[in-house]
């Protein structure tokens, strides 16, 4: 299913940002000279498969209007706008998919990270369905930081 992704990007001033950028841009590609590599900013994928039709006209306006604490009569999410999100890096995972050739697995211990991803999934993919987004967060959400 094609579409866009929402990323959580570390603060530019964080020491891990420059370390990850060196890995992505220089260190890892130098070990795979015969492979096509791409340069990108360090990020954790919060959700993917966001239909282009949602943001095709004005992507920034769509992002600005993104509700990161959707609610319904049966289920609510806590606001993540004022919460600190922590990403616990757990392991290096090699893969075969283009977007997951080499990733750092991110743990799901931080409730704020899971809530943010849940809100992004509900808003961007599931038309506000928080219950389905929570189910996805439990069974389908595999947070990762791409390296290659």
Condensed summary:
This protein is of the alpha+beta class.
Helix content class: 25-40%
Main β sheet profile: 3 strands, antiparallel
CATH topology: Cyclic Phosphodiesterase, Chain: A
Measured distance between first and last alpha carbons: 21 Å
**Average pLDDT score:** 84
Uncertain spans: 70-81
In the residues, how many domains can be counted?
A: 1
Order of helical and strand elements? EHEHEEHHE
Amount of beta strand: 15-25%
CATH-scheme architecture: Alpha-Beta Complex
User: Could you name the CATH homologous superfamily?
Assistant: Cyclic phosphodiesterase
- What class would the helix/strand composition place it in? alpha+beta
Radius of gyration: 16 Å
Strand line-up of the largest beta sheet: 3-4-5
Query: What is the count of DSSP helices, taking H or I runs of 4+ residues?
Result: 4
Q: CATH first level: which class?
A: Alpha Beta
Total strands: 5
Shape: globular
